[in-house]
Amino acid sequence: MIRLADILGLFGNLLLFLVQVLILKNVVMYDYAFCFAYVMLILMIPLDTSPIVQLLVGFSIGIIIDVFYNTIGMHAAASVLMVFVKIYWMKVLTPSGGYDIGTRVNMQTQGLQWFIIYAFPLILVHSFSLFIIEASGFNLFGQTLLKGLYSSVFTMIMVLILQYLFYKKINS
C-alpha cells in the first residue's frame, strides 16, 4: 500500500534534483565553494537498506546529476565512493543496541550533533573525490583541497538548512 508520506518523499526528492540541476548548479562562491545538496538524498538512505541497494542508489543519483552537469561519471564515482564509506562509517556510529528497523536518518530524529558527525565526513569524501577526479590527479593539490573543503562546508550548511525547513520534529 502506498502511503502519503512516501508520495511526498518522492516529490521532495524530485524537487531536490530539480533545484540542484536548475539553480544550485550555478551557485558558486568565489570559484571555490560549490553546493552539492543532492548528497542529502544519499545521506538519508534508511539505515537498514542493504549495501548493494545503497551503492546502486548512489550510482543512480550520481549519474543523473552527471547527465545535467555534463561531467561524464564524476558525480557517479564520487557518490558511489561516498556510499561505500558510509556503509563502514555507520558501523562506527552504530550504538551497541543497534538502530530500530526502518530508522530514517535525519537531524530531527538523531539530533544535530550526531547528524553533523555522521554527515560532514561523508560530504568531505564526496567533495574531495569529486575535485580530485576533476583535476585528474593531485597536480593542483592546494586548489583541490580548498575547493573540497569550502564546498563541503557550503554543502553541509545547505543540508542543515534543508533539514530544518523540511523535517518536522518527531515528538515521542
User: Could you list the spans in which at least 5 consecutive residues all have pLDDT below 50?
Assistant: none
Biggest sheet, spatial arrangement of strands: 1-2
Secondary-structure-based class equals mainly alpha
The rough form would be described as globular
> Largest sheet, described in full?
2 strands, antiparallel
Indicate the mean pLDDT. 82
What count of structural domains? 1
Strand content: under 5%
Helix content: 55-70%
- Put simply, the count of helices is 7
Q: Radius of gyration, rounded?
A: 16 Å
N to C succession of SSEs: HEEHHHHHH
The end-to-end span amounts to 25 Å
Number of strands: 2
In short:
By secondary structure, the chain is mostly helical.
Task: Considering the chains and any ligands shown, give keywords for the structure.
172 residues, 68% helix, mainly alpha, globular, 7 helices, single chain
How does the SSE layout of this entry go?
Blueprint: H1 4-22, E1 28-29, E2 33-34, H2 39-43, H3 51-69, H4 74-93, H5 107-110, H6 112-135, H7 141-166
Antiparallel strand pairs: 1-2
Helix pairs in contact: 3-4, 4-6, 6-7
